Task: inverse folding
């Protein structure tokens, strides 16, 4: 692929639906009212921020900035946009307004932001945007749309990464359950940024250069009924090129492994064997097999058999009008294993039970084909489990792999990849961790992309200054009071290198200095104050857009992804833990504190007693 | 706008990201394995269906079909797609496969579906798709993506419509909280289909011809500090054209209404008055005002005053190093109203308290400007409330409107529109209903578009037949067992015109006949059977795509929207109620029952006792 195409697809192109009309009508209605009242050129400052970290957590990852900049870059109403607005808005709107809109662009706007991929906290503006009132107002909804889901998704992904640990691969499998096509693409992109290793979404791979992964579905397995369906049974040796009968080899191995495991070949599905062989022939170097299509484990098989028994019994009743044969069937076809709880107490498998308990079809067939492939110079990749008790199944699979590794002297066999992918969320992973699971990779769909714990991030976009005059929005809920004026944010670091506190100051103040005591105040609780002596002071905001240009080089997706992990490392663990994390402090300078509260008093009405 | 443009924007165009690569990689991996093993032309039948209605409900609205058909229509791998796949897939993939893919299209596929906008139920295939195995497999993820969120959203919207009742307008306001730009567009489109009246999303309006609505945000109000900022204060009379001073007129009315209500003009915000006047000048025929920017009601104002007291006290403490003045401040600035619960017992406002309790700024200013506008021949539209106790506030606003209507003999004033828009969900509306709210329109965002109660619909896509051979997917969970073979679905209606039951039959069976007894069986519980004598038999599936053509005229969005309401009407109320609805029955014919269970026994392994 040429660099040009890469740039076109990956970096500069943006989903066509991101355009100035992707906004709430009231922005355009207000724009007209501003225009009509001569306020459109008033110099306004807006902050984009959120008030609460998502997912009951105490941090958020900021994402979506690049999309915002691309949006500013191409902001322009097309002729058909103008035509549509004319047809939709009140007939009282003067035609000159539409001429004005037609020429409108974002070149008079200045955008400051925190670096994309940074850890961020409530109330600290992620973006500060300044410029003509009409223009910054018109940007609101689109910027919120571009930042809200992106940040929510990146944060969610980062949380999954933290609970999974760095040695486990994470794949995003959520396209089919996302909010429409582009919801799926955004999920892929921002889960990669948040720390996932890849996606199943091919278009996301193409557009964003994200690794894509995937093998086959249950339908592939069930599309084969038996080995007679195999049109090709042979495969050439990787090195020698000599052609071998993969079916014959696999069948021989299957007999042998079944006997070792005390399993019965007659219970294994031949359709499944055929499917796996055909897949191995197609991808001899990438053989990864779904192993749970038929009877994942005997416990489940027995449950299924019990269901048959019921069905048989009922059938019988209907046929014979009597119930006298039920008992007989129950005895003959009842569960062959008495355990009802998975035998992985203390996270360990009781080996003696393997033969009875374990996979009689999928894993048996997989191992047989994997050993046959090995004879032809190919190393299998691993298995995917998509149902059942994932901790138990991973233990059992790892155990079998280890036993085969020993018996056939193939150390790599013990390290075959185990992928798990059924309805996984943060809690599942935490529970699997406690059970010492043997899973190498999680494929995560629905709960990742829909952000199960909290489906929306509540970023808001508030006016804080107009024509040099600060604006405060009062509310009965103190949390909803906005902090007026242009503000600069600094992150102060402590002696151990961890981030201590984010400090908001008025733009006119001197920045905090390394080694010098700075008074940090709670923005609304007067008595909460602390002196901080920072070992490092990081200004959080940079200019990203000025005079019609993106004025800070855009990071690659990979760079943003790395920044997420680096940024998270600066946070103390207690801010990041899953249960009851400690809130990270966001403070204001003494100057800003007084500024806020003086303005508050000026703006709040004083009641009268009568 | 020309018809051509309409067609381009509204009907035939599709978001550019909907393309064959918008899929999971494993579909393409499987495609290669099918191709490699010579199975790609096997004739396969897949069902797309869901297993459980969303939102703890007992019905679902099927949506997304048109998008699926457009996708089939343009299915084609571009050169750059092929190039990307070559670079991504294993090097063992033969070049001829890519040549094959390049020529692939959906013309050999046949798609049957239920009409978009119909009420549908678990297990009944929404779509049945037949054709070459490789092709129908490649469609899976994209079809699921297009149907899952669309149907979830339409169902959610239909539920909001049901609880709101048909006399209340519903507007979708969710763009800023949706899953990215296209998530927002899909939300607008499918909430309109489900029964909403419009959206704030301008692009959705343009693309789908949905009514768009919106007035202004709090920022508009706070951008004005006083009446001196008004560059224009005059407005011409609608009929006579005579220019009047709207500010002077409004101010006079404000004095008069304040005195009627026992409110103090000094407590009302002049910035707000200026904002409303400027907005009225811009939209004299569409004057709709946000009234909660300053002090929605005194109870809240008092809470805010209490916050000041605390703040003042603390400040005082700091200044004087003593606490002796606290009591004094508490007395002087404490709450001027003693009520702590909203005074709308039994849904009625105690009128005597109005003067003390009610809106001292927003509503006062709105009524003043609305009466001034009336003098100039314009009728105001109404107000929007975006915070606080919506039931109470709507009662109080309606009460004021009625009193003004009486005093000034303006009957239309009593019917001014009240829009409410703060964090609304199904439960809020139900609670507001119980309180006899006076709201005419709800603007609903986050909870609507993120589908709060259940953020994803679990549609699946399962192979049910291959080369004429039925396929069954067994599972330990009976709910997950798929129903094999090609099936036809009928909806049987009872004597009262309501839908009684959906009946699945094998394709080879004769359809049920009106007036003739038909045996309907539970698919898995043998003893659950019933005879039904239908008064009407509706075949649910139609061919929509055959031989490369959309073969059934596509409905307009409006037609689909109407179908939703018509279709819901055929359902008994107990299936639709919010709390503990009765499940609607989905049955199989006796023939299909036996077919399923025979196949089940054939495919399930038989254990051996040792």
Result:
């Amino acid at each position: 692929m040429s660099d040009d195409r890469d740039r076109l697809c990956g970096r500069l192109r943006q989903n066509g639906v991101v355009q100035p009309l992707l906004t709430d009508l009231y922005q355009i209605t207000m724009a007209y009212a501003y225009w009509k009242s001569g306020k459109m050129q008033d110099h306004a400052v807006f902050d984009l921020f959120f008030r609460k970290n998502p997912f009951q957590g105490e941090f958020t990852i900021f994402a979506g900035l690049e999309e915002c900049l691309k949006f500013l870059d191409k902001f322009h109403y097309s002729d058909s946009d103008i035509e549509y607005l004319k047809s939709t808005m009140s007939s009282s709107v003067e035609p000159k307004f539409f001429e004005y809109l037609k020429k409108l662009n974002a070149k008079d706007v200045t955008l400051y932001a925190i670096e994309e991929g940074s850890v961020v906290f409530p109330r600290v503006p992620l973006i500060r945007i300044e410029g003509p009132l009409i223009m910054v107002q018109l940007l609101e909804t689109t910027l919120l749309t571009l930042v809200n889901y992106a940040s929510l998704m990146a944060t969610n992904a980062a949380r999954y990464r933290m609970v999974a640990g760095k040695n486990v691969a994470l794949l995003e499998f959520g396209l089919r359950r996302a909010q429409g096509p582009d919801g799926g693409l955004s999920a892929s992109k921002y889960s990669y940024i948040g720390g996932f290793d890849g996606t199943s979404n091919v278009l996301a791979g193409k557009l964003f250069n994200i690794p894509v992964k995937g093998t086959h579905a249950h339908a592939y397995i069930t599309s084969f009924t038996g080995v007679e369906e195999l049109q090709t049974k042979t495969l050439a040796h990787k090195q020698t090129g000599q052609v071998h009968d993969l079916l014959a080899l696999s069948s021989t191995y299957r007999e042998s492994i079944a006997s070792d495991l005390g399993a019965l070949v007659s219970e294994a599905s031949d359709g499944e064997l055929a499917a796996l062989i055909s897949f191995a022939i197609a991808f001899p170097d990438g053989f990864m097999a779904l192993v749970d299509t038929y009877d994942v484990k005997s416990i489940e098989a027995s449950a299924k058999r019990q269901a048959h028994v019921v069905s048989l019994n009922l059938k019988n009743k209907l046929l014979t009008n009597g119930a006298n044969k039920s008992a007989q069937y129950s005895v003959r076809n009842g569960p062959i294993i008495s355990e009802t709880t998975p035998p992985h107490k203390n996270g360990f498998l009781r080996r003696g039970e393997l033969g009875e308990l374990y996979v009689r079809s999928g894993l048996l067939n997989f191992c047989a084909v994997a050993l046959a492939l090995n004879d032809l110079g190919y190393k299998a990749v691993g298995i995917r489990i998509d149902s059942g008790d994932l901790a138990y199944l991973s233990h059992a699979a790892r155990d079998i792999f280890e036993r085969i590794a020993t018996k056939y002297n193939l150390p790599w066999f013990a390290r075959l990849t185990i992928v798990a992918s059924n309805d996984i969320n943060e809690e599942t992973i935490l529970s699997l961790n406690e059970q010492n699971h043997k899973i190498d990779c999680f494929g995560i769909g629905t709960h990742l992309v829909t952000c199960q714990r909290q489906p929306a991030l509540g970023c808001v976009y508030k006016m804080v200054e107009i024509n040099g005059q600060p604006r405060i929005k009062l509310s009965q809920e103190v949390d909803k009071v906005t902090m007026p004026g242009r503000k600069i944010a600094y992150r102060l670091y402590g002696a151990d290198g961890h981030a201590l506190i984010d400090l908001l100051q008025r733009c006119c103040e001197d920045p905090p200095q390394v080694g010098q005591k700075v008074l940090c105040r709670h923005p609304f609780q007067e008595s909460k104050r602390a002196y901080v002596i920072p070992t490092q002071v990081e200004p959080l905001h940079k200019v990203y857009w000025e005079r019609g240009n993106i004025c800070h080089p855009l990071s690659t997706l990979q760079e943003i992804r790395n920044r997420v992990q680096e940024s998270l490392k600066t946070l103390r663990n207690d801010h990041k833990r899953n249960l009851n994390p400690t809130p990270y402090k966001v403070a204001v300078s003494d100057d800003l504190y007084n500024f806020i509260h003086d303005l508050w008093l000026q703006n709040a009405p004083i009641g009268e007693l009568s």
User: Anything to note?
Assistant: Chain A is about 40% helix and 15% strand. Residues 149 and 563 of chain A are 19 Å apart (CA to CA).
